[in-house]
Amino acid sequence: GKLTTHRDALKSKLSEALAAAEEKDKEINLRKSQATSLQDEVDVLRVALDSANDDMEGLKSSLKEMEGLKSSLKEMEGLKEEAEGLRRSLKETEGLKKGLEEMEGLKKRLKEVEGRKDDKSTPADSGLNGGVDGD
Fold this sequence. Notes:
The chain is an all-alpha fold. It has one helix and no strands. The mean pLDDT is about 90.
């Protein structure tokens, strides 16, 4: 009877040990699963970080483009000022041209007046009254 009792006790201990081993196994699998889940989260975060870095690079290049546009705008302001200067010069030139035309007109009138004086003093110079040129 003692042997049977001893064998039952061993079986009982073995069953407990197996149950404990199975619990440990379940716990290990649970921890593995949690670790995998954490790794997945880390991977997701890494992808998000990469995406954020790409966005930052995009913003940096947009900023550079805006700087370029700002300098282009300054150049355009300069060109606008040059154009205003040219426009003023053109108006001045137009004024000078009108002045020249007026002077030409005055010269012609002066010649006409001088010509009339000549006509009165020497009728032969006019080409009328005899058709002879006085040169």
